[in-house]
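assembly run, all chains below
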Amino acid sequence: MSRMASYLTSTIGRKQTMGIAGLGLSVFVLTHMLGNLLIFKGPQAYNEYAHALVSNPAIYIAEAGLLGIFVLHAINAIGLKIRNAGARTRSYAQTVNGEKAVSFASKTMIHTGMVILIFTILHLITFKFGTLYTATYGDAEIRDLHRLVIEVFQSPIYVAWYILSLIALGVHLSHGVASAFKTLGFNHPRYNCGIETFSLIYGWIIALGFISQPVYVFFIHQ
Amino acid sequence: MGSGKGKNLKLTLKVWRQESAADSGKFESYDLDNVSTDMSFLEMMDVLNEKLVLEAKDPIEFDHDCREGICGMCSMVINGNAHGPERATTTCQLHMRRFKDGDTITIEPFRAKAFPVVKDLVVDRGAFDRVVQAGGYISINTGNAQDANNIPISKVDADEAFNAATCIGCGACVAACPNASASLFTAAKISQFALLPQGQPERVERALNMVGQMDKEGFGGCTNIGACSRACPKEISLENIARMNSEYLCSTVKTKS
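ok done. output:
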């Protein structure tokens, strides 16, 4: 087997591939979340920002790249999970506890990840491929994404599902970002604690930033 | 038994009994009275075995050797924790004063596909030997001993290498890891050489071969949960796994084959 093939099929190689893809996705969710915050500025700013993104020719390359790293991240995660589950065929009567207990986020990465996967698919169907309203600002007639967002977030069930999924994303990122650094070999006693704190804060800023949108629409905007 | 200072416990022990690797195994319960809190966990197991022998029953097989926490032979998962509830402690150094009168204690073998059960609580940890055989050594001819301080090594590197080298290879990291990963063990062995001059000539092959063997043995992968380090009687740090990850990545880039 060539060195590249053995690297890409090793547990460390697959984890590093997953980690790099995960860091890419972490940066994407930050930009997405910041874009969403334009809802507080008003419909025009929100719609014009969305239009600026989709009317840029580079969007196709960006979307293909994003889909690529998302699939790479998910396939490696599921593949490693199957391998890891096979490494212990009989489970313990009790799991680690007390002084030796581990964090909730670290042991539920596959579960939070699956929630995010399902959420992302539904999210694309609802918004990206959802009802096409239009709005006119000056001479330009562009997609009225704001109207769709307001409409969708009228449903308490959708809002609850959205919030739960974004909490799953927060939990996932709070372990995932720091874990990716460790997986890539970044390690220094002086910075390790800082990276873990950064990861925790990053995860919750992302989650709360996203959650602010349905909460605003459902409870305040109406 | 005991110094007389402690008190005696009445315990229920739920112990994993398995005739052989082929047997499916099951838990059996045993009541044990007058367990002194001054006893070590293994002494308690000895008392239970003496009782079983007197009752003409098969004694419980378990691994042990030095009984002073340095050989890495004792194992057991006690109430869900490898080597029991206490941090930085091997099963042989765990004392019954950690338990309360009337407790039910669940005792299982280290469970991993790569550590098949031999009998009862004894597992075959030969997979670790094969990981070490793949590169956990130096094969350079050193000649006569160097003059002291001929090759200066920084205090930080010396300390980290020494900390990694304190690994006793007991396998608690594998037992505690939800993925049954041997990353902490392999990382400790790779680290202790990667940090020192004598480890440099075979550094690249060592990382590639040891990680390759670790994967081949059927251990799971690391997901940075940290259960291994918490279970480790020598408190080997997760930083070693990060070092192994970068050693493996750099070795893949540097290797010529």
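Chain B has eight helices and seven strands.

The radius of gyration of chain B is 21 Å.

not gonna interpret more than that til we talk
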